[in-house]
């Protein structure tokens, strides 16, 4: 039996395991460091956390859900959806909770995985599925350690920290903060938002899904497919805008302008929330509540640079100290450091962190020369700014299943040819060099400017290119063949 170890039980890990099960493989384990599945949806519990991709698309193609309560459902619904999918597909029973992978090394025949408690296990195929947004990034601001009150990252929200009647300082204006602030404004005594760069926003076409629609979806699943297709069409428009389409881009920018004009009457505040960076170089944020929240008398938007954190608040470059009882870091994630802190050692003792020193790269976002039988889910250059990452996860899961079948059938490890991977990477980087994502600094890029997270083309191109595993992409290793352990499945 070919043994597959998947690291992480979020959407990516569940997608991979479900596909392998469907294809008849049984010796699968998911190693999950937390005590529940869910990945980012488990970790992010801040008030207002909800999907910003429409649910008809933010779903597995094999498990469309007639029961979404709305187009952009809250995280609780997404978590229970993922749990149901894992249960129904048989993945739940494969998860080992509370086990954290410290390292994995290839011994020439198999992967030896060491957990943080020292326990070891072996697998033929290693599938890191740890996501791109799993490790919070907190900037080291001067004086941060002197702050007297509670301080937390949006992804480490502590429900025991009181918000009501407190003065809350929120650093950042990204996807998480624009969901959080409208929820806590009005409950808090005052919310002070520290903005470095104004994000692009668009009205969120959210709506409730009533009982009639839900019943219709249950009765005629084709209707769900149609809704998914229509949503897909909308993401193509967004994609075209971000790609700089000369017709769509100005239209979408105009729509965003109209939203600011409509929702923010004060010209001074409107100037502050007007983005200066190119549309789409960071994630475009769909929201109906963010700008109105900023217009409230008990919410301040501070655009002066943060000078230091003091024991009682935040001092900005203009010398003003903004008193805060609680500090919230909505400062994003260390997305470009894929797989860290897990230490991965491949063939001939090569360390993945050394291989990736100039920026993470992987053939088709999944496999790296020198690291046989390792296939990443949501690896380098497989993120999308416009559509659903779950579509990418499913493409990767299907490719993975072909790889596992091949390993099982032939007994040889699969290692991508270095020259194929290099040519592929050059192509991806050349295309990205012309993309909007090089127009500003964001979590898509390393400090040196390489775009390591995003896919440069349309999602269907990725699906097409990963549809069939080409054996010619991999090194032939007949003479080094590992002893055949078992047949497929
Ligand atoms: P983010 O989009 O990376 O935003 C981080 C914010 O913190 C930015 O406004 C950034 O300013 C600011 N910041 C960072 N360092 C700072 C510093 N030293 N001083 C002042 N400001 C600083 O992070 P996020 O909001 O957590 O979202 C990350 C990603 O998670 C999103 O792009 C999205 O893909 C995902 N997400 C999804 C959902 C969903 O509904 N599906 C919800 C939340 C998040 P600059 O812009 O100037 O860098």
Tag the structure with descriptive keywords.
disordered C terminus; four-stranded parallel β-sheet; 2 domains; five-stranded parallel β-sheet; FAD/NAD(P)-binding domain; 489 residues; 13 helices; binds NADP nicotinamide-adenine-dinucleotide phosphate; alpha/beta; 18 strands; globular
How would you sum up this structure, described in words?
- It is a single chain.
- The protein folds into two domains: 4-135 and 334-480, FAD/NAD(P)-binding domain, CATH 3.50.50.60; 144-200 and 245-329, FAD/NAD(P)-binding domain (3-Layer(bba) Sandwich), CATH 3.50.50.60.
- Helix content is 30%, strand content 15%.
- The protein has 13 helices and 18 strands.
- It has helices at 11-22, 40-43, 75-89, 175-184, 211-219, 221-242, 248-263, 267-272, 290-294, 352-355, 389-410, 418-433, 459-466, and strands at 4-7, 28-32, 95-97, 101-106, 111-115, 120-123, 125-128, 151-153, 167-171, 190-194, 201-202, 285-286, 299-302, 306-310, 313-316, 321-323, 326-329, 343-345.
- The strands form five sheets. Strands 8-17-9-10-13 form a five-stranded parallel beta sheet, with helices on one face. A four-stranded parallel beta sheet has the order 3-2-1-7, with helices on one face.
- A hairpin with a 4-residue loop joins strand 15 and strand 16.
- The model is unreliable at 479-489 (pLDDT under 50).
- NADP nicotinamide-adenine-dinucleotide phosphate binds at residues 50-53, 133, 139, 154, 171-177, 179, 194, 196-197, 282-283, 306, 330-333, 443.
